[in-house]
């Protein structure tokens, strides 16, 4: 039998009015959760929110919730862990694989290059 379109619209508008459906809250919780739990970078989170058709202003608000210090600390930790796991690889291969891993996670290239420069400086082997 299903639902009538008019009834669905009424139910949805009531849920929105009573703040059960809130796109901004969803975007903020999605971004924070995927960053903390899955260690996703901003690029991947933004792409996922766009796939879910979240509005651009709500995406921007959600990105502001991720603290820059936490973001860079997570990036450094992931980069360091990946770098150490590739100990037997050649230097260039090690760097390329680490960069590819971090880009796949959704981190931005300039931030990755900065972190890799710090790792290279600290790990003169």
Q: What quaternary form is this?
A: single chain
Question: Which descriptor suits the 3D outline?
Answer: elongated
Low-confidence stretches: none
Domain module count: 2
User: Count of helices?
Assistant: 7
State the share of residues found in helices, binned by percent.
over 70%
Strand content: under 5%
Cα-based radius of gyration, to the nearest Å: 20 Å
Biggest sheet, open or closed, and with what strands and sense? none
Structural class: mainly alpha
Distance between the termini: 70 Å
Q: Report mean pLDDT, rounded to a whole number.
A: 91
**Tally of strands:** 0
Q: Return the string of H and E elements.
A: HHHHHHH
Gist of the model:
With 125 residues, this protein is an all-alpha fold. The chain has helices spanning 5-17, 23-36, 42-51, 56-64, 68-85, 91-104, 109-122.
3D architecture notes:
- The protein contains 7 helices and no strands.
- It starts with a helix and ends with a helix.
- It has 125 residues and is mostly helical.
- Helix 5 crosses helix 6 and helix 5 (68-85) packs across helix 7 (109-122).
- The chain has helices spanning 5-17, 23-36, 42-51, 56-64, 68-85, 91-104, 109-122.
- The protein has 2 domains: 5-64, no CATH class; 68-122, Arc Repressor Mutant, subunit A (Orthogonal Bundle), CATH 1.10.10.
- Helix content is 74%, strand content 0%.
- The model has no long low-confidence stretch (mean pLDDT 91).
- Its main location: cytoplasm.
- Residues 22-63 form the RecX second three-helical domain.
- Belongs to the RecX family.
- InterPro entries: RecX_HTH_2nd, RecX_HTH_3rd, Regulatory_RecX, WH-like_DNA-bd_sf.
- Pfam families: RecX_HTH2 (PF02631), RecX_HTH3 (PF21981).
């Amino acid at each position: 039998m299903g639902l009538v379109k008019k009834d669905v619209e009424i139910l949805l508008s009531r849920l929105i009015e009573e703040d059960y459906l809130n796109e901004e809250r969803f975007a903020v919780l999605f971004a924070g959760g995927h960053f903390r739990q899955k260690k996703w970078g901003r690029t991947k989170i933004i792409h996922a929110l766009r796939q879910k058709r979240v509005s651009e202003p709500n995406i921007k608000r959600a990105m502001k919730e991720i603290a820059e210090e936490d973001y860079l600390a997570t990036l450094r930790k992931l980069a360091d862990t990946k770098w150490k796991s590739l100990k037997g690889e050649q230097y260039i291969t090690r760097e390329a694989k680490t960069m590819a891993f971090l880009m796949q996670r959704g981190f931005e290239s300039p931030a990755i290059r900065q972190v890799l420069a710090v790792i290279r400086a600290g790990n003169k082997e």
